[in-house]
C-alpha cells in the first residue's frame, strides 16, 4: 500500500544543510493503523508529508499503491492526494470563511464532484456534529473543529488517512473521543491510517508503533508482539 | 543611529515584493502629484509672465474714448512731481505686401511706440535688438512671410522698414501660425511712433500713453488723475495684470488638483495596506519587544522610523521623475491649449517643495492607524497567537452606511463641494454595493471559474473592507474617466451652441473709429446681410474683488430688454431697483468679485470711479463670462463712451460670411481692427478642447493603472495574510491552477465591481452635471459609449493583469507551511 525506500530529506537554511530523514525504509499494508512516535525534530512529520505527497524526498522513494510519488509532478501529486488521501492536522486547519458543511465538502468540490447529502449526513453522525452544518469554525470548540477536520478528511472516501498530531491540542477526554472516531471509522471502512503523535495514549490505538529518533526508525512494535504491552507501559510511565 | 536605520531597512525590505510594490505606489503618487503641480504652476506663471512683460514697469495708462488723442494734451502729467517716465503708443491697421496673401491674410496691426528702450514694456527676444528702433515682428510672422532678421518689409500705402528684431509670441505682439488662421487673426508688429504717425497721417496723435510714477500705484494719485481727466474724452486706468478674459483655466487647474489628490489618495491607500499587513505580521515580534521592556512609544518610534525611511526613499526617487513627467506633460499641455508658440520655463521649486512635503507626510498619514495598532499590541494575546475579536465591526458598518447615504444625499446638491461628498458617499457605501453585486455576478463566476470562483466570492468577503476600498478607488477613477469623456465629447457641441447663441450674430467687426450710421446702412444693404447692429466693448475696466485684489475686464453694451438679448442669457436677476445705474455681470466675473446680485460694485470706467448696481448675472461665451453688460443708454450717461466701435452682423446664410469679409476688408480695411465670426470662435474653442481630450484620457488611464497597482497590492496582502489557508487548500485537494484561478477571480470581482460601480457613478455624475445650473447647457446628458467600452474592457484587463502576480505568488505557497505547527 505505502512503501518508503531509503528515504532521505535535507533542508538548507542559509548555507547550512540539515538532514531530517536519514534513510527510512517502511512498508505499510492496506488497512493497517500505524502510529509514528518520536521526540520533536525527529522527522516524523516530515515523513508523513512525504507519504502524503506534500513534498518529495531528497533521495529514495515513496510508493503509494505502486505509484512512485517522487516521479509525479505537483499537479499529479495533488490529484493523487485528493482522490486517495485524507489529511488531519493538529491545528484542525479549517477554512475560516467556510461553514462546517462547506469545509467538509471542499475536497469533493475541488475534484469537481457533487456532494451526496446522505454521505454528509452519515459522516456528521459519525463525528457527532449533526446540527452544526451551518456554523463557522470560530463558532466551534477545539474538539468539534477537529471532528470537522476528520469528516473533511473522509468525505472523499480516501484509501489512506494521514493524521499529524490529531489530538495535540486537545485534553485527554476530547482526545479519546477523536481517537475513538478515527479508530471506529478505520475499522468500519478498512482505511489505512498513519498517525504521527507524541502521545503514547493515542499511539495505543494503532496496530503498529514506529519509534523515530534522529531521522531513522529506531524501533517498532506490533500489537501482536509479545512485548507490545510492556512497550506501552514503559512509555506511558 | 546608523545601526537603527540599518535595522529599519531590514524590516521594510523583509518582504521584497511588498516593499517594491509599496515603493512603486509612493513613487507614482508623488510623480503624478509633482507633474500636476508643475503643470499648474508653470501654466499660471507663464501666463502671468507674459502679462507682466506687457505691463512692464508701467503703473498707469491714459486712453481716449475716441481711439486717438493729441499727444500734447499730456503736458500736465509730465509736469507732475511723481511722474517718472512714459511711452506713447499709436495703434493702426495696415497690410503687408507679400505675394500670395489675401487681404485678410495680409492684415497687420501696428503698434507705433515712442521709445524702444525705456523699460515700460519687455519683449521676449528671439533674435536681434529690441532696443533698436525699427520693425519688430514675431517668429510666427517671420515664418508666415518667409522673412529674416535684416530683411525689408513693405506695407501697402505706408512704407518699408527693416526687421531689427524677431520676438517670441506674447501678449504685446503675436501673429497667426498658419495661413488658415491668418484669415481671421492679424499679425501684430511694432514700429517707431513717428514712422507710423507719418505713414498714417496722424501726426501728433496717439492711442494711449503708459507711464511710471515714482510712487507706483496709489489710490490718491489715481483719483487725482481721474479728476484731471474728468469730463474729457480721455481717461486713466491703473495697469492691472489680469488675463482672465483671454484664459479660462480654473476648470483645468481644478482637474489637475483632482488628479493629484486622487493619485496621492490611491498611493496612500496602497501604503496603508502594506504597512497594516506588515504590522499585523509582526504582532508577535512587537509583543516580545514589549515583554522585554519596550513601551508603546518605543514601538511607535520603531515603526515610524521605518515608514520615514520608506517615505524618504520613495520621495527622493519620485521627485526627479516627477519633474521629468511635469516637463513632458507641460509640453503636451501647451501644445493643446496654446494657440501660439509659447516659450516657458518650468516652475519646479514650489511644486517640488509641496510634493516633497506631501510625499513625506502621506505615508505617515496612511500608517497612522496601523502604527496605533502596533503600539497597542497586547503582549499575551499576540504571543499566544490569538486574534482580537472585532466587536465594533457591526456598529461601524451601520455608521458607515448611514454616513454613506447622508453624504450621497449631499452629493446630489448642485454644488462643486457637494460633488466631492458624492464620492465620499461612494467609498462609505462601497461594501453594500460590493455585496449586492457579488450576489448578482456569482452565477457567472461559478460558471466561468467553477469551484475556485465560488471560493473567490467567499474570500473577497473575508477582507471586505480592504477589497472594497481598493475597488472603490478604481470606481472613482472609472467614473471620473467617464465623466471627463462625456464632458469632452459634449463640450464641443455645447460650447459651439453656447458661442453661437450668445455671439450676437454671425460676425463682429471692430473698427478703429466709431461706426457711423451710414456705414451700418451700407453693410446692411450688402449681399447676404440680414442685420447689423452697433455696440460698445469698453476694454480694461479696472475694479477690485471683495478681497481687495485688482482685476480688469470689459463692459459690453446691449440695447433693448435684458431678457431678449443674443449676447447673453440672464441666469439670475434681482427684483429690487436702485437709483444707481445697473449692470449685469458675467458668471465668472461675479464669482471672481465674490459679491452677490443686488450689491454695489465700484468700477473705474472712462467716466472715472463709479458705483454700479449689480442687477443680475448672465451666462455668455464673450470672454467666457468674465465681463459686464450695460444698457446702451448708459454708454454716454454713465460710462463716458458715447460711440460704439463694434458692429454685430447677422447673415442670411453663413455661407455668405467669406464674401462679406472680403467686402469689409475692401471697403473698410484701413480702419478695421478685427473681424471675428461665430464659426471661427467655435472652431478655435473646439480645437483647443480636442487637444485636451487625449491629454485627459492619458491622465485618467494613469489613475486607472495606479488603481490596478492597488488591486495587485491588495491581493498580495490578502495572499500573504492567508498563506496557511492557501496551503491547507493545496493540501486537501486544490491544484496550483485552481489556486491561481481563485485569486484571478478575486481580482476580477474587485475590478468588475469597480468598473460597474464606477460606470454607474460616472453616468450619475454626467446626469447631475447635465442638470446643473452651473454647467448651463455646456454639458448634455450623453453616455460616452466608446469610453464606456474602453473603461469596462481596460478595467477587466487591468484587474486580471494586476491579479497575475498575486495569483502566481499564491500558487507558490508551500503546502508544508500550512501544516507546520505555530
Give a brief rundown of this model.
The complex is a heterodimer of chains A (237) and B (822). Chain A has helices at residues 44-51, 74-84, 100-110, 117-126, 142-154, 172-189, 200-203, 228-236; strands at 2-13, 16-28, 33-37, 59-64, 67-68, 85-88, 160-164, 192-196, 208-213, 216-222.
Please report the two chains with the greatest interface, counting residues with C-beta closer than 8 angstroms to the partner's C-beta: A-B, 32 and 27 residues
Number of strands of chain A: 10
Mind describing the biggest β-sheet of chain A? 6 strands, mixed
Helix coverage percent of chain A: 25-40%
- What's the N-to-C terminus distance of chain B? 34 Å
Termini separation of chain A: 34 Å
Q: Decide which structural class fits the backbone of chain A.
A: alpha/beta
Share of residues in strands of chain A:
25-35%
The pLDDT mean of chain B sits at: 85
Number of helices of chain A: 8
The helix/strand class of chain B is alpha+beta
Q: Could you walk me through the main structural features you see in this protein, from its secondary elements to its overall organization?
A:
The complex is a heterodimer of chains A (237) and B (822). Helices cover 35% and strands 27% of the residues of chain A. Chain A is of the alpha/beta class and 237 residues long. Chain A has a six-stranded mixed beta sheet with strand order 6-7-8-3-9-10. Chain A has a four-stranded antiparallel beta sheet with strand order 2-1-4-5. In chain A, strand 1 (2-13) and strand 2 form a beta hairpin. In chain A, helix 3 (100-110) runs parallel beside helix 5 and helix 5 runs parallel beside helix 6. Chain A is globular and about 45 Å long. The relative contact order of chain A is 0.18. With 822 residues, chain B is an alpha+beta fold. In chain B, 56% of the residues lie in helices and 17% in strands. Chain B has a six-stranded mixed beta sheet with strand order 9-4-3-11-1-12. Chain B has a six-stranded mixed β-barrel with strand order 15-16-21-18-20-19. The longest helix of chain B is centred in the middle third of the chain and has 47 residues, at 416-462. The model of chain B is unreliable at 387-392 (pLDDT under 50). The interface between A and B is medium-sized, with 32 and 27 residues.
Amino acid at each position: 500500500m505505502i512503501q518508503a525506500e531509503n528515504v532521505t530529506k535535507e533542508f538548507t537554511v542559509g548555507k547550512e544543510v540539515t538532514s531530517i530523514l536519514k534513510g527510512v525504509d517502511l512498508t505499510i499494508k492496506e488497512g493497517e493503523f500505524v502510529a509514528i512516535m518520536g521526540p520533536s525534530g525527529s522527522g516524523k512529520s516530515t515523513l508523513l508529508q512525504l507519504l502524503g505527497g506534500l513534498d518529495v524526498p531528497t533521495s529514495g522513494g515513496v510508493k503509494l499503491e505502486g505509484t512512485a510519488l517522487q516521479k509525479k509532478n505537483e499537479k499529479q501529486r495533488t490529484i493523487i492526494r485528493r482522490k486517495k488521501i485524507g489529511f488531519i492536522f493538529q491545528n484542525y486547519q479549517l477554512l475560516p470563511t467556510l461553514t462546517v458543511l462547506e469545509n467538509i465538502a471542499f475536497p469533493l468540490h475541488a475534484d469537481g464532484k457533487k456532494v451526496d447529502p446522505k454521505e454528509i449526513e452519515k459522516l456528521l453522525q459519525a463525528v457527532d456534529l449533526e446540527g452544526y452544518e451551518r456554523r463557522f469554525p470560530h463558532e466551534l470548540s477545539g474538539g468539534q473543529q477537529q471532528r470537522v477536520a476528520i469528516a473533511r478528511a473522509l468525505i472523499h472516501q480516501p484509501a489512506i488517512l494521514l493524521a499529524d498530531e490529531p489530538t495535540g491540542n486537545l485534553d485527554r477526554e476530547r482526545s479519546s473521543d477523536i481517537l475513538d472516531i478515527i479508530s471506529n471509522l478505520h475499522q468500519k471502512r478498512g482505511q489505512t491510517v498513519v498517525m504521527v503523535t507524541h502521545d503514547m495514549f493515542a499511539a495505543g490505538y494503532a496496530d503498529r508503533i514506529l519509534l523515530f529518533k534522529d531521522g531513522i526508525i529506531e524501533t517498532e512494535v506490533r500489537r501482536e508482539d509479545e512485548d507490545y504491552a510492556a512497550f506501552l507501559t514503559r512509555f506511558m510511565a | 543611529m546608523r545601526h537603527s536605520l540599518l535595522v529599519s531597512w531590514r524590516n521594510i525590505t523583509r518582504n521584497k515584493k511588498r516593499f517594491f510594490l509599496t515603493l512603486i505606489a509612493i513613487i507614482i503618487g508623488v510623480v503624478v502629484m509633482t507633474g500636476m503641480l508643475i503643470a499648474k504652476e508653470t501654466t499660471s506663471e507663464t501666463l502671468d509672465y507674459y502679462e507682466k512683460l506687457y505691463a512692464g514697469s508701467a503703473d498707469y495708462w491714459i486712453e481716449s474714448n475716441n481711439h486717438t488723442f493729441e499727444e500734447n494734451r499730456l503736458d500736465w502729467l509730465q509736469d507732475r512731481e511723481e511722474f517718472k517716465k512714459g511711452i506713447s503708443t499709436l495703434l493702426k491697421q495696415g497690410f503687408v505686401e507679400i505675394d500670395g496673401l489675401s487681404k485678410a491674410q495680409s492684415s497687420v496691426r501696428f503698434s507705433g511706440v515712442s521709445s524702444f528702450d525705456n523699460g515700460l514694456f519687455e519683449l521676449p527676444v528671439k533674435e536681434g535688438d529690441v532696443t533698436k528702433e525699427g520693425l519688430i515682428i514675431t517668429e510666427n510672422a517671420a515664418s508666415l512671410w518667409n522673412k529674416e532678421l535684416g530683411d525689408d518689409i513693405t506695407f501697402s500705402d505706408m512704407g518699408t522698414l527693416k526687421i531689427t528684431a524677431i520676438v517670441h509670441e506674447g501678449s504685446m505682439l503675436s501673429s497667426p501660425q498658419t495661413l488658415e488662421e491668418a484669415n481671421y487673426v492679424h499679425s501684430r508688429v511694432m514700429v517707431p511712433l513717428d514712422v507710423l504717425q507719418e505713414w498714417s497721417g496722424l501726426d501728433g496723435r496717439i492711442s494711449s500713453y503708459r507711464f511710471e510714477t515714482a510712487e507706483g500705484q496709489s489710490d490718491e494719485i489715481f483719483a487725482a488723475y481721474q479728476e484731471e481727466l474728468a469730463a474729457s474724452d480721455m481717461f486713466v486706468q491703473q495697469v492691472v495684470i489680469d488675463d482672465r478674459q483671454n484664459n479660462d483655466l480654473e476648470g483645468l487647474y481644478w482637474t489637475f488638483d483632482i488628479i493629484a489628490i486622487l493619485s496621492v489618495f490611491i498611493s496612500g491607500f496602497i501604503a496603508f495596506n502594506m504597512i497594516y499587513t506588515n504590522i499585523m505580521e509582526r504582532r508577535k515580534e512587537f509583543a516580545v519587544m514589549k515583554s522585554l521592556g519596550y513601551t508603546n512609544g518605543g514601538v511607535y518610534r520603531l515603526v515610524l522610523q521605518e515608514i520615514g525611511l520608506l517615505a524618504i526613499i520613495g520621495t527622493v526617487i519620485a521627485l526627479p521623475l516627477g519633474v521629468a513627467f511635469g516637463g513632458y506633460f507641460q509640453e503636451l499641455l501647451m501644445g493643446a491649449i496654446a494657440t501660439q508658440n509659447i516659450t516657458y520655463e518650468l516652475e519646479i521649486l514650489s511644486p517640488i517643495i509641496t510634493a516633497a512635503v506631501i510625499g513625506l507626510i502621506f505615508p505617515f498619514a496612511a500608517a497612522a492607524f496601523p502604527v496605533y495598532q502596533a503600539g497597542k499590541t497586547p503582549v499575551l494575546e499576540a504571543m499566544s497567537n490569538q486574534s482580537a475579536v472585532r466587536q465594533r465591526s457591526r456598529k461601524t458598518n451601520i455608521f458607515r452606511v448611514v454616513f454613506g447615504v447622508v453624504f450621497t444625499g449631499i452629493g446630489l446638491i448642485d454644488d462643486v463641494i457637494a460633488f466631492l461628498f458624492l464620492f465620499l458617499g461612494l467609498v462609505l457605501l462601497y461594501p453594500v454595493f460590493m455585496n449586492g453585486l457579488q450576489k448578482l455576478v456569482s452565477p457567472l463566476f461559478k460558471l466561468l471559474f467553477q469551484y475556485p470562483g465560488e471560493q473567490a466570492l467567499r474570500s473577497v468577503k473575508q477582507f471586505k473592507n480592504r477589497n472594497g476600498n481598493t475597488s472603490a478607488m478604481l470606481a472613482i477613477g472609472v467614473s471620473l474617466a467617464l465623466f471627463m469623456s462625456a464632458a469632452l465629447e459634449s463640450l464641443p457641441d455645447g460650447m459651439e451652441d453656447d458661442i453661437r447663441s450668445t455671439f450676437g450674430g454671425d460676425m463682429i467687426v471692430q473698427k478703429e473709429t466709431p461706426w457711423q450710421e451710414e456705414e451700418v446702412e451700407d453693410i446692411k444693404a450688402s449681399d447676404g446681410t440680414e442685420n447689423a447692429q452697433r455696440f460698445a466693448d469698453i476694454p480694461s475696466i479696472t475694479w477690485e474683488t471683495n478681497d481687495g485684489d485688482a482685476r480688469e475686464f470689459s463692459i459690453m453694451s446691449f440695447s433693448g430688454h435684458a431678457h431678449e438679448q443674443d449676447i447673453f442669457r440672464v441666469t439670475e436677476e434681482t427684483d429690487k431697483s436702485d437709483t444707481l445705474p445697473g449692470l449685469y455681470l458675467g458668471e465668472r466675473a461675479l464669482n471672481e468679485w465674490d459679491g452677490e446680485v443686488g450689491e454695489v460694485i465700484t468700477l473705474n470706467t472712462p467716466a472715472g470711479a463709479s458705483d454700479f448696481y449689480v442687477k443680475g448675472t448672465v451666462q455668455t461665451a464673450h470672454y467666457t463670462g468674465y465681463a459686464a453688460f450695460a444698457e446702451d443708454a448708459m454708454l454716454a450717461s454713465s460710462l463716458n463712451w458715447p460711440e460704439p466701435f463694434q458692429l454685430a452682423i447677422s447673415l442670411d446664410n453663413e455661407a455668405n460670411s467669406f464674401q462679406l469679409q472680403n467686402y469689409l476688408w475692401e471697403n473698410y480695411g484701413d480702419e478695421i481692427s478685427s473681424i471675428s465670426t461665430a464659426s471661427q470662435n467655435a472652431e478655435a474653442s473646439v480645437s483647443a478642447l480636442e487637444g485636451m481630450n487625449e491629454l485627459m484620457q492619458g491622465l485618467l488611464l494613469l489613475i486607472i493603472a495606479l488603481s490596478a497597482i492597488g488591486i495587485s497590492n491588495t491581493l498580495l496582502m490578502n495572499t500573504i495574510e492567508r498563506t496557511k489557508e492557501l496551503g491547507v487548500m493545496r493540501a486537501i485537494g486544490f491544484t496550483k491552477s485552481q489556486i491561481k484561478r481563485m485569486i484571478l477571480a478575486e481580482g476580477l470581482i474587485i475590478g468588475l465591481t469597480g468598473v460597474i460601480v464606477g460606470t454607474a457613478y460616472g453616468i450619475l455624475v454626467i446626469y447631475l452635471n447635465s442638470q446643473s445650473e452651473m454647467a448651463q447647457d455646456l454639458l448634455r446628458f450623453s453616455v460616452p459609449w466608446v469610453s464606456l467600452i474602453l473603461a469596462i474592457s481596460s478595467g477587466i484587463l487591468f484587474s486580471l493583469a494586476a491579479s497575475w502576480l498575486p495569483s502566481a505568488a499564491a500558487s507558490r505557497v508551500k503546502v508544508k507551511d500550512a501544516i507546520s505547527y505555530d
